[in-house]
Amino acid sequence: xxxxxxxxxxxxxxxxxxxxxxxxxxxxxxxxxxxxxxxxxxxxxxxxxxxxxxxxxxxxxxxxxxxxxxxxxxxxxxxxxxxxxxxxxxxxxxxxxxxxxxxxxxxxxxxxxxxxxxxxxxxxxxxxxxxxxxxxxxxxxxxxxxxxxxxxxxxxxxxxxxxxxxxxxxxxxxxxxxxxxxxxxxxxxxxxxxxxxxxxxxxxxxxxxxxxxxxxxxxxxxxxxxxxxxxxxxxxxxxxxx
Length: 242
Hints:
The protein is 33% helix and 19% strand. By secondary structure, it is an alpha+beta fold. Helix 1 packs antiparallel against helix 4. The longest helix is centred in the first third of the chain and has 46 residues, at 2-47.
């Protein structure tokens, strides 16, 4: 009798474990699938952002202030730092020629981390270690201690970035900045300079050597958010449930 009870108990335990393992597999597969869909939807949504209003205002600003009317740089800190958000726009062709990853300032967080990848802190205050929004004029080319050893001085033209030169805010490259998008991971954060990858800086350097007094405009609209609809559960999950 004891052997019968033992066998029945063992059968119940094994059956329970199998059901739990199957449930865990289903939940795990569902989570991976939902996460993948969420990432794709986010990237698809952000890549469809219309910057037409900024491009139109930029060309008028450049005409009024006698700045370069060939190229213009827009940096959108409203985007996740793991996405390309540094854009070189061609006024004549009326289109974005190139886009790159760019870092932002760490603020009160540790330098070199990605704590603010979804919401870049901005400030014009000295020692804030933040990026500053506003319009800049790209000035002289200089020598940097970072990346490919090239930087460009940035002169802030708005109240929100008037301390740029005093804060030594420059455009430069940094070994830690990736070449390609790393979303949902973020790009390492510095002390407020717009820093790009070494490969990106080589391309940007060519443009800036050929174009003087370029407008660089850093914006931060409301962070982009995607309202996700519940996607259908993939067929393989149904098969596991059955």
